[in-house]
Write a structure and sequence with these properties.
The complex is a heterodimer of chains A (324) and B (265). Chain A has 324 residues and is α/β, with parallel strands linked by helices.
């Protein structure tokens, strides 16, 4: 039996708009997604903001009812058997919300251990152990409002492990963390997997998914567009080279002109502090460079690198390809 | 219900109550609702009575205490769910195996018990500031009435709780129902002063029977049969609220999972 089985899952949000003539607006957040997660697997759900990752996790953690389709967690249906599922799963939603800021870290854990029906004798030992595990042993008696974002996130990890769940849902757990905090959290995730916990991790950090996940499902606009191992996904872009250019102020017209070039398969742009990173995928590698430079005529260009594709490039190709 | 489930639920109620009180102790809004607002109501009522040289001090103490209980139930219990929604803890609570109605029960119990402080504040104001001789005519019956009042208010809160769970928009109606219940329940003056058509509405409110039981038990001349009738009505309404809330919670918890109103995204 799989830990998670998802069949044709769909979720539509309905909102009312207008005051006098009220209309119902429908937004399809998840559209016919199917996948399964094996016991002990660390499974990644990857996608840009608004792709439907959090909605999927909320349906699987029994917080939302699917509009159609089915999902079972450890053999139980997410709609009918919500109460049975809740005692066997743990979840973290990214960010520093979801904790009682006016209570201490210790009291937060004590409260949630009673809600998870952890026996008092067990929780007396488990809470100090978990505080120690997440590096909060010295700060456990302080109010959460004084914690940094990373400390709150680590407290979330401790909270979700209180009842020793078999299955963990980690929804963008490293979002907003500094590099050291994010690295520590990834290490914790790796250790949890070593304990044979099944983990569903959502993220839009490619290196995180590449480093941690055994299989990755890529979602975009609510649809599943790829599902495979990180290595297999990278194979899809093996034939390509990536020209990465540090640029300043590239217009939409320029990007469209680049996309129209022969031998260019994908073009994407990312903001990085004061600069932009322009990523051009081409099967011809450095041979395509003169045409690219021609298109960028008059634009200030910094560093230029031609490199092998990474999982991120495979992801960009998938998402861009799906969007177009 | 098995003994294990009962013990788990009691622990949830105890810890929820404890954490609610710990957080309330440092909340200016709760301090205002439980202590300052009833103090102002009490002073106003005592000044109005000052010239009459009556022995109505206990009536004001009870009435003000009841108004504190009601405000606390309506605002603190209701707002606590709204605050949980804002802070993202509502989803965390719902995702636990603990029954949400048991959690709300624990919250309501803590809030109602802490709001009894309103009565103590008013007693001190009336006795020390206005020199009223305050005596409770039938102390034992008063204590039993107070106990049944707490149970009835906590049960009434279980009807209000699901409505606040349903949608944050319910908060908009809080102010609108605070004072009508003050008046209809006869906290500070008898409902006989109101138009006749309002009387059936008062009879449908557990706070009315609670206020009446406490007023009769504390004032001179109250009969046991009258108090016992109020107790019966309080028990009846508590049972109705408890049974009704069971169905209400079930329906609302399904609805919020369909409407996606547990979190604010």
């Amino acid at each position: 039996m799989n830990a998670i089985e998802v069949q044709h899952l769909r979720r539509v949000y309905r909102t009312n708009i207008g005051v006098i003539r009220r209309k119902v607006k429908e937004v399809v957040a998840v559209e016919d997604i199917s996948f399964d997660v094996r016991p002990g697997e660390l499974f990644g759900l990857l996608g840009p903001n608004g792709a439907g990752k959090t909605t999927t996790v909320k349906m699987l953690t029994t917080l939302l009812i699917p509009t159609s389709g089915t999902a079972t967690i450890l053999g139980h249906d997410v709609v009918k058997d919500a109460q049975l599922i809740r005692s066997r799963i743990g979840f973290i939603f990214g960010g520093d919300r979801g904790l009682y800021w006016r209570l201490s870290g210790y009291d937060n854990l004590r409260y949630f251990s009673s809600l998870y029906h952890v026996e008092p004798e067990v929780s007396k030992k488990r809470i100090p152990y978990l505080l120690d595990l997440v590096g909060l042993a010295d700060r456990g008696q302080e109010k959460v409002e004084g914690y940094s974002r990373g400390m709150k996130q680590r407290l979330h990890v401790a909270r979700t492990l209180l009842h020793d769940p078999e299955l963990l849902f980690l929804d963008e757990p490293t979002i907003g963390l500094d590099p050291v905090g994010a690295r520590d959290l990834r290490l914790m995730v790796r250790n949890l997997q070593a304990e044979h916990k099944t983990i569903l991790l959502t993220t839009h950090y490619m290196f995180e998914a590449d480093a941690l996940c055994q299989r990755i499902a890529v979602v975009n606009h609510g649809k599943l567009i790829a599902l495979d191992t990180p290595e297999a996904l990278k194979q899809d872009v093996k034939d390509l080279s990536v020209i990465e250019l540090e640029v300043f102020g590239v217009s939409v017209d320029t990007i469209e002109a680049l996309r129209a070039l022969p031998h260019v398969t994908t073009v994407s742009i990312e903001d990085r502090d004061q600069t932009q990173a322009l990523l051009v995928h081409s099967p011809h590698g450095s041979e395509a460079l003169p045409d690219v430079m021609n298109c960028l005529n008059g634009i200030k260009i910094g560093k230029v690198v031609v490199r092998e594709p990474t999982l991120e490039d495979a992801y960009v190709r998938l998402v861009e390809g799906h969007a177009s | 219900m098995s003994l294990k489930i009962l013990s788990q639920d009691l622990r949830v109620i105890r810890t929820t109550g404890e954490m609610t009180l710990r957080q309330a102790a440092v909340s200016p809004f709760i301090i205002f609702t439980v202590l300052v607002q009833p103090l102002l109501v009490a002073m106003l009522a005592l000044w109005m009575l000052a010239d009459k040289k009556t022995n109505d001090g206990i009536y004001v103490v009870v009435g003000t205490g009841m108004s504190g209980l009601w405000s606390s139930l309506l605002f603190i219990c209701g707002n606590s769910i709204t605050v949980e929604r804002w802070t993202g803890t509502l989803e965390a609570l719902v995702a636990t195996p603990a029954n949400i109605s048991v959690i709300v029960f624990g919250k309501n119990l803590a809030n109602v018990l802490q709001s009894l402080a309103s009565m103590v504040v008013c007693y001190l104001v009336a006795a020390l500031l206005f020199n009223y001789q305050i005596t409770v005519d039938q102390p034992l019956l008063f204590i039993i009435s107070l106990l049944l009042t707490v149970i009835a208010f906590v049960s009434f809160g279980l009807i209000l709780g699901p409505l606040f769970l349903l949608s944050p928009a319910v908060q908009n109606f809080q102010n609108g129902i605070e004072f009508p219940i003050y008046i209809l329940a006869g906290f500070l003056f008898p409902i006989a002063l109101l138009p006749n058509w309002t009387t059936p509405l008062s009879y449908l409110l557990a706070p009315y029977w609670a206020a009446r039981a406490l007023h009769v038990a504390s004032s001179v001349g109250g009969t046991f049969s009258e108090i016992a009738f109020c107790w019966a009505m309080l028990i009846l309404f508590s049972v109705i609220y408890l049974v009704g809330s069971r169905y209400l919670f079930r329906a609302v918890m399904y609805r919020v999972r369909v409407d996606a109103t547990l979190g604010l995204e």
